[in-house]
Design a protein that fits this description.
Helix 2 packs across helix 3. The protein is globular and about 80 Å long. It is built from six helices and eight strands, in the order αααββββββββααα. Strand 7 and strand 8 form a beta hairpin. It has one domain.
Length: 248
């Protein structure tokens, strides 16, 4: 009868070393893929709920958000928004130009190690029952879409980066919510497609241009449709965001 041979100690150590190397190489990619799937799911959930809110709001008030807010004011709208959500907690009173400490930091895709300001700087920061961090921009100009709402889909968990877990949207005059970066005849564009206080951003350059000051702000449109802003034949989450330099 033949005897069975097992691994020698040296062979066992070599095998374990190889398994460890494979795990080290493969694990970051698997983790990044899992994170992208989670971010994508959180984004779609937030987008759906925002559109539900806009629809209910118009049905109850007779006007879409942009028209109602011009008559009743920004602060009144913030209160109305909170009334529709299951639970909203104000976590900071910070606004642009205020002396209140800015306790929440956003990052742009082209500079993940340096915090930046936010285009939604008129309301302080709020947290909803799903753990999302929410902030609003100024009221829109008459007849145009707005205000902008910025949503960090997983709250302060991180990476708190535009185009990954932070996205901005616009309330429209026809009672909907569109992702920033989507064209609409009632979007207000100032300057070079940029008007922070009362308008929106446009163009793929504000999603992928590494030298752009607003890099990542218009990524919401591409992320929701899973289209790479650099190549429409490729995907957003796997081909664009999945690249290592975008992972924190």
């Amino acid at each position: 009868m033949k005897s069975l041979k097992g691994f020698t100690l040296a062979e066992g150590l070599i095998t374990l070393t190889i398994c460890g190397i494979v795990a080290v190489v493969a694990l970051p990619g698997l983790m990044a893929g899992r994170d992208s799937i989670e971010h994508q799911a959180h984004l779609h959930k937030a987008y759906t709920e925002l559109n539900d809110f806009a629809s209910y709001f118009q049905a109850d008030h007779g006007d879409p958000v942009p028209k109602w807010i011009l008559v009743n004011g920004r602060d009144a709208f913030f209160k109305e928004y909170a009334n529709y959500m299951a639970s909203i907690t104000k976590t900071s009173d910070w606004q642009s130009g205020s002396s209140v400490a800015h306790n929440y930091k956003y990052y742009f895709l082209n500079n993940p190690n340096s915090s930046v300001g936010t285009p939604c700087d008129a309301s302080g920061f709020r947290e909803d029952i799903a753990g999302r961090t929410i902030s609003f921009d100024d009221s829109p100009l008459e007849g145009y879409n707005g205000p902008r709402i910025c949503v960090d889909t997983n709250g302060q968990k991180g990476p708190n980066t535009y185009g990954i877990d932070v996205f901005s949207f616009m309330f429209t005059v026809d009672g909907e919510v569109i992702p920033e970066g989507q064209e609409h005849p009632k979007n207000y564009y100032g300057g070079q497609g940029i008007h922070w206080s009362a308008g929106t951003l446009k163009g793929t350059e504000n999603c992928y241009n590494q030298n752009g000051a607003n890099y990542g702000v218009t990524c919401a449109y591409y992320a929701i449709n899973d289209i790479s802003p650099k190549d429409s034949s490729k995907t957003y989450w796997k081909d664009f965001i999945g690249r290592k330099q975008y992972q924190k």
